[in-house]
Design goal:
The chain has 851 residues and is α/β, with parallel strands linked by helices. It folds into five domains: 203 residues, Rossmann fold (3-Layer(aba) Sandwich), CATH 3.40.50.300; 57 residues, no CATH class; 175 residues, Dna Ligase, domain 1, CATH 3.30.1490; 188 residues, D-amino Acid Aminotransferase, Chain A, domain 1; 178 residues. Helix content is 33%, strand content 23%. It has 28 helices and 37 strands. The strands form seven sheets. The chain has a ten-stranded mixed β-sheet with strand order 18-28-34-33-30-29-36-37-27-35. α5 runs parallel beside α6 and α15 runs antiparallel to α17. This is Phosphoenolpyruvate synthase. It holds the Pfam family PPDK_N.
Length: 851
């Protein structure tokens, strides 16, 4: 249908005042009530029907319907409770679906406050929807209640819309006062007009205009509705318990999220004062995200349920939270929303992510937000801070997003302007990480790609102290309340396990180059994994991550370089003297910085309350969560060996579970199995048939250059897709998922996520060694995906390994991936019908053989 150049409002007098409507006009009416808005909608709808135009009613308000059901009107009923992004996306889709030239009536926008609690988000919605409606030559009516919204909201609407008009009812008469009429003008256009039937009488006399406007409440500057609700909640502190609980739950829906298992946990342990304290430390509005919520509720559980056990040992926190609404506003203000809408489709999900990521990295924050950021930085002064992702879905039951989003250290040195610039870029980096390939694939694989992923941010003071020009905590690590990775049949899997490093915790959560964290089973903290005495130093931590005040950056130093620094604590708590190493150094004539100290935390585990405290802490959190938990923490010690634990993070940890006991066949002479071992596996009791084995040969892989090694890793990703749905065992040299090709295969987790079993094989000849890095993000991903893990230390006592059981079978690589024939010398894919993996967690037996 061709749309005329000028379109009637249904009121001839109004048409003369504003020179009629034009295709693309968004018309916003400021009214005193919904009934007044309906009064002006009626002639517009009647005219639209008369002109036989397509009319759509977008229904979302809690007020009575503006239009009655009619075959001439198409109604879309939208959910507002799911939040800004879902609502804005739904409007975008329906407008796109209805196409050009459609006429719209939207419910009163002010009703969105009851669900979003934020004027800012209403202006954001209008800012992303209005231009799209304009592009499609539509006509759309909107209503907003006068004196309810902030000046900033009205200013944003005025700037974005084509027409903004005031509608007044005074002494039972209606007046229209145009405030903005885009690309039209007359000498009397912006004067008030009295509506008399179809006519509009211009009020030109000053006496009449003064009488009219003096009877109208022009209102005062209003705070954002978010602040109004928070301030009203403070008044409830003097009310009864029942009223406080009601107000508390309202605030929780604003700050924490909708009803969920985590929401109910927070409801049990937070009171109204707690929620108000959280709100007081939020910048902006919206949800504070899963990481912030997990940290806060875990601390509260320890204080309330610990009955004084943990309070003396817990370090305080003074974190800030950047609400998720800042993220949305940043996208809108930087023109990213249209691209984001295209990216959220199946077709554009991966296609548009790189472009969107670049836009996010190069955007700007508003003047108002910059001022709020600066005030927060002034609070922290020059203390180092860390800017951490805290998305709505993160650290929740079922989805941890371990390591998927960025965390950025700000050493916070330099002038205020330099420190601010670094902080702002850190926030952009976290926002942009929502478009990282691993994060996108994780959401896609778990059916979350259509869910709102609202990115809030947790800003924490870095735990630690200054040591000369370096800043770091004495100890950092991760802890699990239960573990299915054990190396001794006497171990209690429910006692919990720690992964400890000296310095910043970055080395505890990542698989690092030639470095090994200390694994601690909390049933017997001094028990060590099966490592030969001569390898004690080799399989220990050699590098320490610190914040360098001099370089204003995260840096790594060898342990030998800093071993003699003043740690302001007893060095022997962290490191033990290795007499064997000391003797070798003397024999070799070394007198420099080479240290015979080995980072093993022996005295910390033997002579302090630390391991017992951590075991009790993990047990309590798991009991209250009614679910295994994973925590991140730091430990700082004083010169008299007293310590404080800073609980940085707590999240539910998905575990595969023990499963029923498995009857393992007899090994026989050892020649009839693919491999057999005791311990060094993770995944519980299994009897798992294997359909295919993908085997990467150590020596052939080692001979390739770094670029070619990376190419091999990409082939594993292709096999991961081709063999999806089959039980596949992936066997390869050294570490899977390393970033260093010389240590193993640099696959991304998304390139092995469909495997049933992964095996890391030691090869002395080729120089590859598995790393039993339980507790890292990589291992958390394995656990969450239900992938069984095996480390095969070929050559060690009790280990049987016969790769010929696979290599003697036909290599199916070319049949599965014809374009990958050049990798057949290093990748062997065998069909292995009848091959079964058996494991028993109690006896620590592991066997893989044909039956």
């Amino acid at each position: 249908m061709n749309i005329d150049n000028k379109i009637s409002t249904g009121l001839k007098g109004l048409d003369r005042v504003i020179d009629m409507l034009r295709p693309g006009d968004n018309v916003v009416w400021q009214v005193d009530s919904v009934s007044d808005y309906r009064k002006i909608v009626e002639p517009y709808v009647a005219q639209t029907r008369l002109d036989q135009r397509k009319l759509v009613y977008v229904r979302f308000g809690s007020h009575a319907p503006l239009l009655e059901d009619s075959p001439e009107v198409k109604t879309y009923s939208l959910e507002t409770q799911r939040g800004f992004e879902s609502f804005a996306t739904a409007v975008h889709k329906l407008v796109e679906q209805e196409g050009p030239g459609t006429f719209y009536v939207f419910d009163c926008l002010s009703d969105l406050l009851a669900y979003w609690y934020s004027d800012l988000m209403i202006s954001n919605f209008f800012k992303v929807s209005c231009p799209f409606l304009y592009e499609l030559d539509t006509i759309a009516y909107f209503g907003i209640i006068r004196n309810v919204h902030t000046y900033d909201t009205i200013a944003c609407i005025r700037e974005t819309t084509q027409l903004l008009l005031d509608l007044y009812q005074v002494k039972n008469q209606y007046y229209i006062h145009p405030l903005k009429v885009w690309q039209r003008y007359s000498p009397t256009m912006f004067l008030p007009h009295l509506i008399q039937g179809q006519d509009a009488v211009c009020i030109t006399a000053s006496s009449e205009a003064a009488e009219l406007f003096s009877s109208i409440n022009c209102g005062e500057e209003r705070p954002d509705y978010w602040d109004v609700i928070i301030n009203q909640a403070k008044d409830a502190l003097v009310s009864g318990q029942k009223e406080q609980e009601k107000v508390k739950r309202l605030l929780m829906t604003m700050l924490i999220g909708n009803e969920s298992r985590m929401f109910e946990l927070c409801d049990r342990y937070f009171n109204l004062r707690d929620i108000l304290d959280i709100a007081a430390r939020e910048i902006g509005s919206g949800f504070i995200g899963g990481k912030s919520v997990g940290m806060l509720v875990a601390r509260k559980i320890l204080l309330l349920e610990g009955h004084g056990r943990f309070e003396p040992f817990l370090e305080s926190h003074d974190s800030y939270y950047l609400g998720a609404d800042i993220f949305y506003t940043y996208l809108v203000q930087n023109g990213c929303w249209k691209l984001r809408a295209r990216q959220k489709t199946k077709e554009g999900y991966f296609k548009y992510a790189p472009e969107l990521r670049e836009r996010i990295l190069n955007g700007k924050f508003s003047k108002t937000m910059r001022e709020k950021f600066m005030r927060m930085l002034e609070y922290f002064g020059q203390s180092p801070i860390i800017v951490r992702s805290s998305s709505l879905l993160e650290d929740n039951f079922g989805n941890t997003f371990a390591g998927k989003y960025e965390s950025v250290f700000c050493v916070n040195q330099g002038t205020p302007e330099e420190r601010y610039a670094a902080f702002e870029q850190a926030v952009r980096t976290v926002y942009a990480s929502t478009m990282n390939e691993d994060a996108l694939a994780y959401r896609m694989n778990r059916g979350l790609f259509e869910h709102d992923e609202q990115m809030a941010i947790l800003v924490q003071r870095v735990s630690g102290d200054y040591h000369e020009e370096k800043f770091f905590p004495h100890v950092a690590g991760v802890g699990n309340s239960s573990s299915l990775y054990v190396w001794d049949k006497s171990m209690d899997i429910n006692a919990g396990m720690l992964r400890l490093v000296f310095g910043l915790g970055t080395r505890a959560v990542e698989r690092t180059l030639d470095d090994y964290a200390r694994i601690v089973g909390l049933d017997n903290p001094l028990r060590t994994p099966p490592v030969n005495c001569e390898d004690k130093k080799k399989f220990s931590q050699h590098y320490v991550d610190v914040l360098s005040l001099k370089e204003n950056a995260l840096t790594s130093h060898s342990w030998d370089e800093i071993v003699n620094d003043d740690f302001k604590a007893d060095k022997n708590l962290f490191a033990s003297w290795d007499h064997q190493t000391a003797g070798r150094l003397r024999e070799l004539g070394y007198t420099g910085k080479h240290s015979a100290y080995v980072l093993d935390f022996y005295k910390l585990l033997k002579d302090t309350e630390f391991p017992g405290l951590m075991r009790d802490m993990l047990a309590l959190l798991a009991r209250v969560y009614d679910y295994p938990v994973d925590i991140e923490f730091t430990v700082n010690l004083s010169p008299d060996n007293r310590f404080k634990v800073n609980l940085l993070q707590c999240r539910p940890l998905k575990t595969r579970g023990l499963g029923n006991a498995v009857q393992i066949p007899e090994l026989g002479d050892g020649q009839d199995c693919f491999f057999s071992a005791r311990g060094n596996f993770m995944g519980g009791n299994v009897r798992l048939p294997i359909d295919f084995v993908v085997y990467v040969g150590a020596e052939a892989y080692a001979e390739r250059n770094e670029q070619s090694k990376c190419a091999v890793a990409r082939q594993i990703g292709l096999l991961n897709m081709v063999l999806k749905g089959k039980n596949v065992m992936l066997v390869g040299p050294g570490r899977w998922g390393t970033t260093t090709p010389s240590l193993g295969l640099p696959v991304h987790f998304t390139e092995l996520c469909n495997m049933s079993v992964i095996c890391e094989v030691a090869s002395c000849a080729a120089g590859f060694t598995p790393e039993l890095s339980y507790g890292t993000h990589f291992f958390q991903n394995l656990v969450e995906a239900g992938i069984f893990y095996v480390a095969i230390f070929n050559g060690q006592h009790g280990v049987v390994f016969h790769p010929e059981h696979v290599l003697n079978k036909e290599n199916l690589l070319a049949a599965l991936l014809p374009q990958s024939i050049q990798f057949a010398d290093v990748i062997h894919v065998a069909r292995t019908d009848g091959l079964v993996l058996f494991s028993d967690i109690v006896t620590q037996k592991l066997l893989c053989k044909h039956i």
